[in-house]
Design brief:
Mean pLDDT: 86
Distance between the termini: 52 Å
Oligomer: single chain
Strand content: 5-15%
Radius of gyration: 18 Å
Order of helices and strands: EEHEHH
Length: about 100
């Protein structure tokens, strides 16, 4: 599925990165990178809130370590439903130590 918004990004240990707008291409590229480079040399950043995409990426990573993802799709559906309905909290401005400068 192609999107106008990026669905994910893959960062490589040698400094390159790729941004994906197609879910299937993102998942396939991450799977290939894990196979060729291993989990310590590649980092995926899933930008979409689509639960199925998050689960697919997590499944690949769990599998890389010979494990099965302990979370089912329902877990991801709940997680991202809560994330999208939660109010955005205003972050307090950090307090600066030291002398204040006069304008």
């Amino acid at each position: 599925m192609t999107s106008e918004e990026p669905v994910g990004r893959i960062e490589y240990s040698y400094g390159d990165e790729q941004t994906f707008y197609d879910t299937e291409k993102y998942i396939q590229a991450y799977e290939k990178a894990l196979f060729e480079m291993g989990p310590m040399a590649v980092k995926s950043i899933t930008l979409t809130k689509d639960p199925a995409t998050h689960k697919a990426i997590d499944d690949l990573l769990w599998n890389e370590f010979g494990e099965e993802n302990p979370h089912d799709l329902e877990h991801y559906q709940k997680k991202y439903a809560e994330a999208s309905s939660a109010p955005v909290e205003q972050q307090p401005e950090p307090e600066l130590e030291g002398e204040e400068l006069e304008p």
